[in-house]
Write a structure and sequence with these properties.
Helix content is 28%, strand content 26%. It is an alpha+beta fold and 313 residues long. It has a 5-stranded antiparallel sheet with strand order 2-1-4-3-5. Helix 2 packs across helix 3. The two termini are 46 Å apart. The mean pLDDT is 88.
């Protein structure tokens, strides 16, 4: 077993393991640690605990010290300098006429490096820009290109639900989200309704997806013929959450010169009260077993509902 403590550097950022040494640390304490980027100011994400050796990448770097008043003041000064740094960098970007959008900037705690985050449609040759910034800041410069989801995580905002964005308030990592999840929940495939501020599929689509998959098992499709206690019927509507299958009874089977005759009244049944075609059930099982959901990382606002409906089929 290895004794560790978790440290994070952003509100909803990843948690990194460090060696607590003999420090008495608790969640919320501020500490100074050494990372691959240099000396950093972080916050304890969880209390000291023991984990399996296989969960830790050795060597584990130790906590340097608990942050004091001077450390907090220096960290506040670094945060205050970010706005001016972004302004200077934007001026250099405009002068070089580079197709890139600046998102955020970070100073390492010891001021050994300044890191600029940006988004761009393609690759950007920023070698000359780095030289300009190095001359202006007199320190090591790093430019890091990020995706639109990471941009939204850094900038924050309010989601369609009226609450702060999950990615910027509590969610540490982005999970796989696919159009299939929206279909499983019978959601509208209107891009404006299932896409987040970033233009990608909303992360919350996967929160209840497993529940919908379980409830959907054994449910027939609309238009499918099933057997009931009252006879054969055709499915008109399915309510997964209420476990209700709305049908019309088959009064007369289709013939060469006549269409299938259905009852004018609707009959509702539960999943347990119907029987489906075994061949169709087996086919659905094999399809589900061989299919893997893929992450949608394209701008949904550029797609039509028909194009969305054709995805993941």
């Amino acid at each position: 077993m290895t004794r560790i403590v978790g440290v994070k550097f952003r509100t909803a950022g990843k948690t990194y393991y460090f060696d607590p040494l003999d420090f008495k640390l608790k969640t919320g304490d501020e500490v100074i640690v050494e990372t691959a980027r240099g000396i950093e100011f972080g916050t304890i994400a969880f209390d000291v605990k023991d984990v399996e050796d296989s969960e830790v990448v050795q060597p584990l770097k130790p906590i340097i010290r608990k942050a004091d008043a001077g450390d907090r003041k220096k960290n506040a000064e670094n945060i205050a300098k970010r706005e001016r740094a972004l302004q200077i960098c934007q001026e250099k970007v405009d002068a070089r006429k580079l197709e890139m959008k600046l998102v955020d900037v970070e100073y390492t705690f010891d001021n050994s490096k300044v890191i600029f985050y940006f988004t761009a449609d393609g690759r950007v040759d920023f070698r000359e820009l780095v030289k300009d910034l190095a001359a202006a800041f007199k320190m090591r410069i790093e430019l890091r290109q990020i995706g639109v989801r990471d941009e939204t995580k850094m900038m924050g905002g309010i989601g369609p639900c009226g609450r702060p964005l999950c990615c910027s308030s509590w969610m540490r990592d982005f999970n796989t989200v696919s159009i299939k999840m929206a279909k499983n929940q019978n959601l509208s495939l209107n891009p404006t309704k299932i896409s987040g501020i970033c233009g990608r599929l909303m992360c919350c689509l996967q929160y209840e997806n497993d529940t919908y998959i379980d409830l959907k098992k054994g449910m027939p499709d609309i238009g499918e013929r099933i057997s009931t206690k009252d006879g054969n019927a055709v499915v008109c509507d399915v309510n997964i959450l209420e476990n209700k299958i709305k049908t019309r009874l088959v009064l007369e089977d289709a013939k060469e010169d006549k269409q299938e005759k259905l009852s004018s009244e609707y009959y509702s049944y539960k999943k347990e009260e119907i029987k489906r075609d075994p061949k169709k059930v087996k086919k659905e099982f094999q399809k589900a077993k061989s299919k893997n959901n893929r992450t949608e990382d394209i701008d949904l606002t550029k797609l039509t509902e028909e194009e969305l409906a054709a995805m993941d089929d």
